[in-house]
Write a structure and sequence with these properties.
The protein is an alpha+beta fold. The chain has one domain. Helix content is 43%, strand content 18%. It is built from 4 helices and 5 strands. Helix 3 crosses helix 4. The model has no long low-confidence stretch (mean pLDDT 89). This is DUF1801 domain-containing protein.
């Protein structure tokens, strides 16, 4: 098994470096997030748009990109939730993930990411509950 990074992983690392530089220069981080969503197509774009809307309507997290993906950070600039498109890594589902700053602890074992192929109204309600818990407002 190769320990080398694949081209998608290398691109994500380059994006992370560019994002750090842009943040230091005061770039419009939300515009970068929206641009990342606009670059997606099909279901990935639809899911990312729904997540973006739900985050903006239900939390005070700020939009940005993280490794080239839409992400949402707390006031300290730490990513709480992110979206990873299926197409980016050529997998069959997108991922909505939560980072350690998300307040989702539940006993000794809890999920930190979710495979997503569709977001029904019920799924969106569940996601809103998770988002509110993640930022400590539930």
């Amino acid at each position: 098994m190769s320990t080398a990074f694949n081209k998608e992983e290398k691109a994500a690392m380059r994006a992370a470096v560019a994002e750090a530089k842009a943040a230091k220069l005061g770039a419009d981080l939300e515009a970068a997030c929206l641009a990342a969503i606009d670059e997606m197509t099909g279901t990935d774009q639809e899911l990312a748009q729904i997540l973006h809307r739900l985050v903006k309507e239900n939390t005070d997290l700020g939009a940005k990109t993280w490794y080239g993906m839409p992400a949402y950070a707390n006031a300290d600039g730490r990513v709480v939730v992110f979206f990873q498109s299926a197409a980016k890594f050529k997998v069959r589902y997108a991922t909505i993930g939560f980072q350690p700053d998300a307040d989702l602890d539940d006993g000794n074992l809890w999920p930190t990411s979710f495979a997503v192929v569709k977001l029904t109204a019920a799924d969106q309600e569940r996601l809103v509950e998770l988002l509110k818990r993640a930022v400590g407002s539930a």
